[in-house]
Records
---
Amino acid sequence: MEELINTLQNQGIEDKSVLEAMRKVDRKDFVPSSFKHRAYMDIPISIGSGQTISQPTVVGLMTQE
């Protein structure tokens, strides 16, 4: 998880409340079991029906704006 947080910071996410929220809300809880091994990668992940869970960097940037 901390590696992902470091990636987010390197991508320009600086708001401490956004970073803390992303630490507390475990992305692993929102991805299908077949993708749990990718939960902390900075990539969108398929959740079925042609939909994806957004890339963490995108979520962080949108949230801090």
---
Amino acid sequence: MAELTKYLRCCNINAMIDMFDISESVSKDVEFWCKTAFNSADIILIVTSPPPNKFVSTIYENIDSYILQLIRENYGEKHKRYYILQLPYCKPTDLPDEAQRFQRFRMPEELPKLVRTVHNVDYIRFFGFSNKEVLLESIKLAEIEMLDDGTYNDKNADETDDLLPSAGPLDDIETEDMNLENNNPMSSNDGKGESDSLETKYCELQGGKNITADSDSDE
């Protein structure tokens, strides 16, 4: 989750996450930060977590329950968008019922598509250093850990063989990232204006086992 947040911020997305931002807030109050971040966000991203039998300690306990309550209370608001990130080491059923209806993005294959959707444009020029390779590696390491500790022992060989991303999809991500920048019609002189125009508030929710990937697994 840490590397995903850093990557999104490199893509000119103001990604807010509890593991980084609560300790930097004035109040340090978990519920107050959650409510403030939720209300100010244009997009709520729900990330699938390891299954319940995979215990991973979290920085802030029970934050997932509070976020689910906010989703239930505010889902009718038209100015917010809700998306799901499906990590390769998690199953669709790991999501809470409240999130099953939302549009889903498979990670890491649809990472460029997610960025374009957040900005609501066809092409994106990235600003700053992009840590895409670090993000992809952290996803793969978390996935291997989930397999090694027996979490997916109930799966057959054919199912587990498909869990790790192949070289093809990762190469496609690199190619698509390059195309996003090369096909952007705006010149480099327009960079500052583009940065201002594309900046979108975005809230990434991290914490408990049913709403996000636990931060320790991807750091």
---
Amino acid sequence: MSKKRLSIAVLGCGPLSNTLAQHIKADPALALSCTTPTPQQLTASAVCVIYLPDAAASLPEASEQIQALLAEGKNVVTPLPASALGKAAILSACKKGNTTFHGTGGFQNALPVRFNRAFAAITRDISDIALVEERPASREYAQNALCRSLYQDSLHTLSDAVFGDRQDNLSPDLSPLALEPNANPPRIGSISNAEPHTVIRRSLGNHVSYDSLWSDPDPDNNTLRYSLHTRSADAIGHATVTLEGDGEQDLLCHLESRQLLAALAITIYSAPGILHHELDINAVKADDRLQI
């Protein structure tokens, strides 16, 4: 007897949405319900929605859309952590719809961050964290709106993973809505000697920063390099990991889509509530603070 395929909807557009659709179609355990940029066009058959934040929308707008999906009975997997969306409101929507929300389901830097945190050997009492990404430029990702969404998700996920409930004690402006471009984020580490074509700098408050350095397009270069710099009261840690692709696909897009897909099954089969990835270990766990 064949196992019933899980019906998945992708809410979003762009290269990541297209990549997800391709992977879902190729997976014998999954069925693509629909791919749409608007919630109104979602099909009723979907048991889980992969929510890709609309970069033009604000965090409150994203939270409202996700709450509506959860309350209507749709499980949701998204790159955005619950801390950026309002945990109490998300949990309330989960209870209403008897559904599960997986925040940080598609953090594209999850794998290198896990490696780097382990190698840096500073996993407690971190006061500052800086992630530096070096990558070849991509036409598809060279869109201001998409970049804004990508780095917004990453900053909030890093902040939630490192600081958790300590966020309020670190800085008055380290809050879910404090995301602003910063020409001079705090530097606690160095970058490579590469000559970047484009530099995107983002920070969240005074303690979390994410720099992305894009080199000129090179058809023979499909390499991602991540450097993680952490600081505590006692030490400073630096670690770097390099990922190489086959040149056929955007590695960053591939990493994020794989993270999202890996979160689907546990989200669908878990009890109602909130799940999240712990970035220092390669596992998914229930958020004990928000258990029903």
---
Amino acid sequence: MLIGVIADDFTGASDIANTLARGHGASPGLHVVQYLGVPDRPAEPSVQAGVVALKSRSIPADRAVAQSLAALDWLLAQGCRQVVFKYCSTFDSTPQGNIGPVAMALADRLGARGVVVCPAFPTMGRTIYQGHLFVGDRLLSESGMQDHPLTPMTDPDLRRWLGRQGTGPVGLVPLCVVRQGAAAIRAALEASDATLVVTDATSDEDLMAIGAALAGARLVTGGSGIALGLAQNLDVAGPGVAAPRRTAPGPGVVLAGSCSGMTRRQIEHHRAAHPVIEIDVPAVMAGTLTPEAVARQLLALVAQAPLAFSSGSPEQVARMQAEYGREAVAARLDGFFGDLARALVAAGVTRLVVAGGETSGAVVSALAPGALEVGAEIDPGVPVLRPAMTEDDLRAELVRLAASLFQRGFSVGTAGNISVALPDGWLMTPTNSSLGHLDAGRISKLDRDWSHVGGDRPSKEVFLHRAFYETRPGTGAVVHLHSTHATALSCLVAQDPEDCVPPLTPYVVMRVGRVPLLDYVPPGDPAMGDLIRARGGRNAAVLLANHGPVVAGRDLLSAVHAAEELEETARLAILLRGLPVRLLSPDQVAELERRFGGVSR
């Protein structure tokens, strides 16, 4: 592990994980895993950046320090070269807060001085000038954050705010120095007598310069923006192939506990097209409204992407806190949302969108997935997160799915082969192995250069798989079968070699796309890979003439499902051969591709 992050809440952790995973400019994206709390086992060797998500933003300083030091110990044990203490870009804390104490404790443990303090995130309008934090064109104390229910920010001067938290003198690297570049920034930090140094930044270019200045720094503190320039200091090429992307088909629900003005506006926007349920906070506090009751309401509306919220105006929040106490309201609502999320998932909800740092932390803590892989960014700072699969998990899933295909007749004898992408290479079924009798420990492993580094010797048809991974970005798995009907179809003279599988049902269009018939090449001939590579990644599946199908998917499960759909459509095509057939029209196919996203391109 190269970079370790200690984040003070869950959404902040996902924010910086997203920044590190996607990279910036010439800086590579890293293989990032987000951990929920301090893990109890070592990280996978392929992890380049580990983000430990704590729930420490609003807790007393002594507890936050203890949790952060425990996270630091774990990260150092993983070999981290650089540690980042991540807090909110609006510096959420109070004069009795813990940002200063945690930063000082980490600096003391690491023997660091001249430690950057930079919550700037210009993409989201958070900038620092002369040590003052702005949100858009307003000082932080005039941005609405002064009304935050847990951490009202009433002073935009970061040096003064940290001083109130007992840090002692705090330095400043002003914008005029930042604009002189990395060497000037580094010199200013080294010359400072202060342990903590607020560093101005009003643009991504400023953050890149600060990042360059931090090469070799043991400790960095800031918002997610500070991570923009850190990867440029590492001698790595990034993960090469994205971690397998696994989608969660099925119903989704939105939960909102944030009381920010932006969240309240988003709720009203959602209300225009979807059902919205307001959670009665006094009833929650009185115990007369249960998570199960709200879950039943949401499940009755689940096909319409419903939203449940407890977000209130500053005046409403103030009344609740005055009546019940700030900590009591926060704790009760956290527990409520956690129990609500558990009830929804138990009932079959597979996708949750959660607004609010404390609420998100409560939901994820309740669901306890352990670690999360970082998926696509859906909005600045907002990635899709999925429960992470270890290499052992993927080996087990490959064995399970391969056995299922074999038992259902999709593969016979030692025919067929399957591969799945890892952050540091690929797993592949061994040569002359039966898909029905795989041993997880003997599955072949190849590194990013396609060299065999573990397990039995890989399938002799490696080149089929490699061609898809190299020409179709986002491919997470490839399945090659000799399934009966698809192979039969590959033996027939195709009416259209560019699309030899007829659009008999919507599902082959949605899951497989257009399937070209490639010329016959003897088994084991690398020319097969050249034929696939010549397609330029336009197709997710091909039929090898007189041989069988090869199907790529964004992850192992989707590749298997697509191979099954292709076999079913081939079976229908064989059964219907010679009969008058009603195919989907070109307009109907185009509409399916428009609505559900074209698999072919």
